[in-house]
Hints:
Its main location: mitochondrion. This protein is an alpha/beta fold. It has helices spanning 2-13, 75-82, 149-153, 158-168, 186-197, 212-222, 230-236, 239-242, 257-265, 288-294, 303-309, 314-329, 346-353; strands spanning 15-20, 25-30, 32-39, 49-56, 63-73, 93-94, 100-106, 118-121, 132-136, 140-143, 177-180, 201-206, 226-229, 250-253, 272-275, 297-300, 338-342, 360-364. It contains 13 helices and 18 strands. Strands 5, 7, 8, 9, 10, 17 and 18 form a seven-stranded mixed sheet that branches. Strands 13-12-11-14-15-16 form a six-stranded parallel sheet, sandwiched between helices. The protein is globular and about 70 Å long. Bound molecules: NADP nicotinamide-adenine-dinucleotide phosphate.
Amino acid sequence: MLIRSLLHRAIHEGTILLRNHQKCSTVWRKTHHCSALIYREHSHDIQTVRMEPLLLPPVGDRSVRLHMLAAPVNPADMNMIQGSYPILCPLPAVGGNEGVGEVIEVGSDVTSLRPGDWVVPIDAGFGTWRTGAVCEEEEVITVPKDISLLGAATIFVNPCTAYRMLHDFQTLTPGCTVIQNASNSAVGQAVIQIAAALGLKTINIIRDRPNCAELIDELQSLGADYVVTEEEVMSTGLHRVFEEVPKPKLGLNCVGGLSGGLVFSNLDYGGTMVTYGGMAKRPLQIPAKSFIFHNVTLKGFWLTQWKRKHKEDKAQLNAMLNAVCDLMRGGQLSAPHCVQTPFHQYTHALQATVQSHGRKHVLIM
Ligand SMILES: NC(=O)c1ccc[n+]([C@@H]2O[C@H](COP(=O)([O-])OP(=O)(O)OC[C@H]3O[C@@H](n4cnc5c(N)ncnc54)[C@H](OP(=O)(O)O)[C@@H]3O)[C@@H](O)[C@H]2O)c1
């Protein structure tokens, strides 16, 4: 009778009785509910994403329960929902790949995390657009709490991509130049700031827009040396810029199409262009003469692949994260310009991400 009434209360309160096979004892473990942004099919229609209640599994010996604090809406998240990203989650899926959560509860065998820690998911596909999560200890990595909440929520994808691309493809010394397109993107803003901290000069291409002067000021205040529109590069070129700084050894292409060609054709002899995004959804237009006469190299970069390659090597992951956090602490790197959006207003954030000239939106749970 007592057991039956306890069981009834347990089901009512979301607590379930589990047998812990390893220790051969019976333990009470509590389940919780959270709210999550779930999609059940791949579609370009953002109405496919709906807020739903989700039952979280109980915390196991090696798992942790998180309260998600903030999570950005990135273009790659939308590509995953649309079904056009190279890795897709089994459906139904919770949206979002990046975000910061606070550890609320840890399993008995968890050694690296404590309640109160801030953590971010290591791999893509975590499903960060939710108020709570239960995951394995190894799925997340700690971020220090002395950086801003927005900084923590947006640190492990875009700034780390910028950091890797500035370090892994060309030997760049202070005074060298880097050219990029989509310079106002979150990656672009991080490139400007990390490059400035390294003593590099940046040439930053943006798309023309009604408030162009405002955007130029904004990027210059981050440390951009030159900000030019695609139209200016096409009509007058960068001759004036190259009277002041050397031609770039490194080009970063987030767009493809004609814009990628503008980055490529302005590289120095022996330079490298790294493509990390395809925002224009158009094939790269590349002049043959840059290959023939300038010996320029084309490369690609995908942070997810880099992280997967180094997933056993927490020291490498931590070294990158610490370097980026140090820049944030030192005031040399800030979170991207963004709009903080209450979680329940998620449709607004998704809509803005698929629009031209939209601001980055960060969901606040
Ligand atoms: N390979 C990797 O490891 C990696 C890592 C991080 C991000 N990424 C990729 O990098 C890209 C930027 O990500 P993010 O989070 O930094 O983006 P974001 O902050 O949302 O900014 C999006 C950027 O794309 C530009 N854009 C949007 N639509 C465009 C179009 N049709 N043609 C040309 N430019 C367009 C925007 O310019 P306007 O303001 O002019 O619209 C803006 O500069 C995405 O493709 C993302 O998937 C790749």
